[in-house]
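User: Structure tokens for this complex, please. No commentary.
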Amino acid sequence: MAGGEKNGRPVNFWPGWYAMLTYVAMVAALWCIFVYAPTEKAQGIVQRIFYFHVSSAMTMFVAFFAVFVASIIYLWKHADWWDQTAMSAAELGVLFCTLVLITGPIWGRPIWGVWWTWDPTLTLTLVLWLIYVAYLMLRADATDPRRARFAAILGIVGFIDVPLIRWSIEKWRNLHPDPVIVQSGGTTGLPPAMMLTFLVSLTAFLLLFVFLLRQRMAIARRRHELEVLRYKVDEALFG
Amino acid sequence: MKNFWYLFSAYTIIWTALWAYVVYLSQANRALKQDIEALRAQLDNVIAANDASKEGGV
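Assistant:
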């Protein structure tokens, strides 16, 4: 039972089987990456960064899409649950975006010969990271509803950068490689073993994202509960 | 094994970051749970003391 309540108190907020499933998926992903997948001829072993780099990027897009949807619903319904969802997803989006921004240069250095270049895709990804770091700074004071509304607007507007990144990979080419997973015409540039490895990695990352999101939301819910309890104690003490 | 250290660094950073975040979430959850339990106990005590003083006053 996930997120259940017993006598008004939260109990075991995530089932053990889900954590085990995520763990097994991660181990399977690592086995596929380092044992099963063939070594790419042109780039060598460093190409294996691709599996976690692209999985992190796609998980980041899912996280920021969750911020976008939850922020719209929060502005519409004014329910705390949606604000907590948006804030938790934003934190995870920043985490995965950070991983993308770190693993990208580590992969790029031996291939491109530079750690960083102001390529449109890289620059737009950095801008996306800055937008959602600003969002988290705005939400640092979790009790102010005005800040929550401004953050929700930033969460919605900031999402515009996501389709721009996708567009820049396809049309605004510079150093960043062409899309290989799904190319124009619906074909793929990956051999079957690499495609399977990528899909296992992506599944593991998405399972991890949902697991972390529920944990982060439990923290947001407990912080809110703590504020309510503090208010009740003050009221009982001082009237 | 050309470029091995780039591959090693990338995966080490990913796993360290994810592990650190899971530990942070787990510790924050545990600390909040303890604070909530303590406040609940404090609230029960204050309410019981208020009730007792009301009964004593009657």
